[in-house]
Please model this.
Amino acid sequence: MQVPPTDPALLSRRDRERLARRLAMLDAALAVFGEKGFEGATLDEIAERAEFGKGTLYNYFPGGKDELYRSLFGERVVRGLHEVVETALPEDRPLGTPAEARAAFRDFIFGLLEHFETNRPVLRLYMSEAPRVIHDPERMGEMIELFGGFTDAVTRAVERAIAAGSLRPLPALPVAHLLIGNVRGVLMAHAAAECAPGKAERVGALDPTATADLITTVLFDGLLTTVPTAPSPDA
Amino acid sequence: MQVPPTDPALLSRRDRERLARRLAMLDAALAVFGEKGFEGATLDEIAERAEFGKGTLYNYFPGGKDELYRSLFGERVVRGLHEVVETALPEDRPLGTPAEARAAFRDFIFGLLEHFETNRPVLRLYMSEAPRVIHDPERMGEMIELFGGFTDAVTRAVERAIAAGSLRPLPALPVAHLLIGNVRGVLMAHAAAECAPGKAERVGALDPTATADLITTVLFDGLLTTVPTAPSPDA
DNA sequence: TCCGAAGGTGACCGACCAGTCACCTCTTGA
DNA sequence: TCAAGAGGTGACTGGTCGGTCACCTTCGGA
Model:
């Protein structure tokens, strides 16, 4: 949960070494968790891949497998999501006109796709989280906490756009969930396709530009060829 | 994989008993897998809950835990999805006008939501599948096979609507995936909320009617308050 | 009533793995 | 050069669970 001090190189030699070791362990853990999932990963393999003894893992992550996984999630997955939302949907980005809103959310969708496209292991980790968590209220609470800031930031952007009149007056939180869910769905399909070699052509390669355009068109312009008679008042 | 003969009562007494026992086992397995996930479920607990000895499980499902899970998936989850799509999107349902297409897909979305709303254990099973499968190409292939018919049916409906001019000329398969993904996303959010008691109000109760309306509005009418200048030619 | 087989049963086995700890190495400072 | 301690190490332990199989119950037919 606590983030290590990522300050540059004005740390003692010892501390720099510790930090590097910690990162090596997280890298190895990311790879193994990504390949095997939480249950399938073993600490022996993580230790071997990080080129440390298993005992050393416990010096750096006293909470064991669980703490390792949680740290990874906070420091790699959630941090990445925050960077995307801060880049594409900063609080001061204008969303006053439909065109501005469309462009901003398109950037957001594209940012998410590209982030995970270039960080496949993080994607695999992200995708393997739900099943582990859904059967354990405590873990689920933690995750909701972790992701809360991200969802909130998207929701605020949706609210701003609705308030400015550029988006339909729908409830903001569910709309934010839909936005995120669409990207998530595409990513999951691609993670799946990548895993089952023969069937991949059913989905095609992940092209962030084309995919972002598609999702944006569907969500913002709508699938229908006719114009809705009037913005539906609520839902 | 093979479906048991569900013909009525013109089976021998012995066969009827076997069938009932099989169903009792699947019921118990559904409950336990749903609560604990694949890894967390134990055959001892399933056997105990089904009120059979563990050995008996192996008489009915010689493939063990794996076969039990796969049978459950085919006979409960996938069959349910097929029923929904056959009801809401039969091959002969007219999709020629935008209004017809909108209504048909709205029924489809509503059907999915309501199906899972009334079959919570099936929902939990469905939600817990991805992580298990994503790390194993063989299992993934099986799942794609299992779900293929469902996705295909939705894709065909989308193609018909596009051919009839009532939907934008976007690639049909990704659009079908988006449709399914939106419902899946909402369901997952609710499965999650249900699991973490304190945080549930962030999502609210699952109201199939309101949720179906929201998703339909977003996907078919679009989020923007302005009219798209022209149907985008492709993606 | 008795016999034989079909099939239910749960104690048991072996594999697996998270987590521990006694030991060892390597750095540091005197 | 050496002593001390910080910290790395991996063999070991305890517990868990999927899968097996020798035994037993039950039931149908003679």
